[in-house]
């Protein structure tokens, strides 16, 4: 394996040097190798690095452990994916705190056209189980890759349903790839390697410690186009994933439950607070994401252009986004058009006046 990979892995093992700092260092020095050659004063001058982090980097000496990790990766054919590598999940790149390094074993693409995460309680009801199985079965017809966390409950039900339906499924782990947790899911994990894969940002010898799971959830949320929550209590870990997905401007959908059901209290709350779309079936997912239209030949818009004045460049840029997906959050328009807040506001207002867009609750807009 190349020497640059050794330095990339080394960066991830240095105390105080997290994913955001690694990316900032790469911006300044160009490569991981050049970072380790840098002088202390050059490191300290970089914003948010400072003296403590510069010292931690310069004092790193444990390259023997890095070489052992590289040998482990080669022996078990695990693919290291630095954030600059072509195979790195491109959706994840848009998340500011995405891992600088990932480790992947499997055959499924991490950049498929359609990717959805399914999360939920570890103790699902019969209702939750049946909804999950039926949902995955129906989503399979649309060629969607299913992502979850290989945990008990909804996670493993989603993985099994995906395997049964013959679609790719990715398990995101909160530990290294030298183990499977829980051990009861080892066979399922093995089956997933052929039809999907296992992904983590933790190196080997990393135990499934409690604090790793919320951090793992950022990958589950960020790697997908949408996150689906099936049964979660008010304090369920799945709500962390839903919150992260909202923060990344991803779609969040929740399966509702009876108001008396503790297992559905978290889902019902997200729907009530307009932090999630109510999900009834797979058709709701396809409609929300605009994937139904992509499966059919594109047809020209029903609006006659001659009825409206020519669109400005800003309005054209915004409408181009809505051709890809019929519903968008206002924040998406800021991020993807790179227009100023005032430009977006004026353009959206004009498009509403021309009946090309209509507003929805929660700062969302829909193509008419």
TrEMBL record:
GO biological process: one example: DNA-mediated transformation
One Pfam match: DNA_processg_A
Membrane-spanning intervals of the chain: none
Residue ranges constituting the Smf/DprA SLOG domain according to the UniProt record: 81-288
SUPFAM superfamilies on file: MCP/YpsA-like (SSF102405), RuvA domain 2-like (SSF47781)
InterPro entries: DprA (IPR003488), DrpA_SLOG (IPR057666), RuvA_2-like (IPR010994), WH-like_DNA-bd_sf (IPR036388)
Annotated signal sequence range: none
Family per record: Belongs to the DprA/Smf family.
UniProt protein name: DNA-protecting protein DprA
Organism: Chitinophaga eiseniae
Higher taxonomy: Bacteria, Pseudomonadati, Bacteroidota, Chitinophagia, Chitinophagales
Gene name in the database record: dprA
